[in-house]
Amino acid sequence: MSAPHSEFRRPWPPPPLPRPSESPFLLLSFSSSDCTDSYFIRRVHFVSGELHLALSEFRQLMHAETIYIYMLILLHKFSPSLPCLLRIEAPKNPIITRRNFPAQITHSLPPHKVELFKSLESWAEDNVLPHLKPVEKCWQPQDFLPDPSSEGFYEQVRELRARSKELPDDYLVCLVGDMITEEALPTYQSVFNTFDGVRDETGATATSWARWSRAWTAEEKRHGDLLNKYLYLTGRVDMKQIEKTIQYLIGSGMDAQTENNPYLGFIYTSFQERATFISHGNTARLAKQHGDLKLAQICGIIASDEKRHEKAYTKVMEKIFEIDPNGALLAFADLMKKKITMPAHFMFDGRDERIFQHYSALAQRLGVYTANDYADILEFLVARWKIGDLTGLSGEGNKAQDFVCSLGPKVRRIEERARARAKEGSTMSFCWIFDRKVQR
Ligand SMILES: [Fe+2]
Ligand SMILES: [Fe+2]
Predict the structure, then answer these.
(1) Ranges 95-104, 316-325, 340-349, most confident
(2) Do residues 353 and 94 make contact, with C-beta atoms less than 8 angstroms apart?
(3) pLDDT in the model for residue 39
(4) Contact 261, 195 (CB under 8 A)
(5) Organism's domain of life (predicted)?
(6) How far is the CA of 61 from the centre of ligand 2 (A)?
(7) Are 57 and 37 in contact (CB under 8 A)?
(8) Angle in degrees, CA 35, 96, 345, rounded to 5
(9) Active site residue 223
(10) Which of 97, 55, 317 is nearest to 195 (CA)?
(11) pLDDT given for residue 104 in this prediction
């Protein structure tokens, strides 16, 4: 754990501290707009007369920390003689640190609205379950992989390896990141089963919601399996490092901020299924460009599953918007204000605390998944649920409507500014590809 410490410090040059005449919000705006993630205060202490804020990395700035930083800046403002030094410390044990989350909101949907999902049980049977494919009609990973029982197995593996030789390292890193995200499937099933009113209470509950949860998971399982086996056979990636990253990620879980609330849950899954449809579609397009048509077919077939799942989840929310437009809209605005967290945001390879940011930056540069895609998905959902046409809303509902309808262009503007600031030309190594360097 010695190397990660310096790696951890490198991305953050010490921020300019506000001078007494400047706004105390200077530091906060630095945290939220100039960094891809924010920071969590672990400790405040005095060292040789200097005030140290020891921060560990977290993916969002919690309300309590915002107030804390604000108070300390005020203290600095009124006591300019007291030097305030910001210092980043690597968490001693990332898994344990990440479990020490500040209070999370739970069970935010009132019981009568949870009942709504129970009353939609037969509607889900007729409208959601048909989006699953019968197992006998589903593709399986083996359909796209060398057949180990056939005489030609070694030859098929040789062909696969020859094809994959042409894949550039940065593309491989993206594909590995996508595969690791898929492989953390146990987390996603757990998260689905946190949603009040639709969870699988026993592991074999007979409700249509619970049957969807299990069968959806079973369909998703094929994605990680196929990508994992394909990448293994290429011989181009460090499987042990990848396997460690998967173990860390499942151990860390995820914080989708869905509050056990199925409104937030189904908006989140609608967003994420479309995001994965887009990213797998783009890895398919790039595989084709690099001449690996088999891999293009694999990424394409996975993308088509994600599209089908997106249809199911957006249909559930369409129904909720029909029954409770105001409540659904408030949930949509709430989730977009909090920003959609990516499922693998706690990714860690045992060395690089910022590996998720590095993988995401690469995905952005290669056009696999970009901030523009985020804006596109948001605008797609606004149109899909006809948000602009909703009427009879409360005052709060009207504000939420204005917020989500005008958010897309704002996201794009932030993205343009970030791109203008991005430094090009630097390289970094990924343990997933034996520490080979790729351009960031
Ligand atoms: Fe998937
Ligand atoms: Fe999916």
Answers:
(1) 316-325
(2) yes
(3) 45
(4) yes
(5) Eukaryota
(6) 28
(7) yes
(8) 35
(9) yes
(10) 317
(11) 78
Give 189 Cα–ligand 2 centroid separation in angstroms: 11
Annotation marks residue 276 as catalytic? yes
State in Å, rounded, how far the first CA of the chain is from the last one: 23
* Catalytic annotation, pick one of 65, 183, 292, 306: 306
Q: What is the pLDDT of residues 200-239, one digit of tens each?
A: 999 999 999 999 999 999 999 999 999 999 999 999 999 9
**Widest CA span in the chain:** 79
DSSP 342: P
Q: Out of 276, 283, 341, 370, which one is annotated catalytic?
A: 276
Q: Which of 57, 169, 182, 219 is catalytic?
A: 182
> How far is the centre of ligand 2, averaged over its atoms, from the C-alpha of 394 (Å)?
34
Task: Output the CA 303–ligand 2 centroid distance in Å.
Answer: 8
Q: Is there a catalytic annotation at residue 112? A: no
Centroid of ligand 1 to alpha carbon of 317 (angstroms): 20
Question: Residue 176's closest CA among 104, 116, 244?
Answer: 244
Tell me, in angstroms, the distance from the centre of ligand 1 to residue 280's CA.
Answer: 9
E strand spans, 68-208? 84-88
Q: Which residues of 378-395 are buried (b: 16+ CB within 10 A; e: fewer)?
A: bbbbbebbebeebeeeee
Q: 214: burial class by Cβ within 10 Å (0-12, 13-18, 19+)?
A: middle
Q: Indicate if 306 belongs to the active site.
A: yes
Q: Which of 76, 131, 280, 309 is catalytic?
A: 309
Sign, CA dihedral 408-410-416-419, equals negative
For the question of residue 139 being annotated catalytic, the response is yes
Residues in the chain, total: 440
Whether the pTM exceeds 0.85: the reply is no
CA distance 347 to 354: 8
CA distance 111 to 345: 31
| Candidate list 36, 52, 89, 139, residue with the active-site label | 139
Coil, helix or strand at residue 66: helix
- Residue owning tokens 């005020």: 74
Catalytic residue selected from 169, 183, 219, 273: 273
Span 369-391, pLDDT tens digits: 999 999 999 999 999 999 999 99
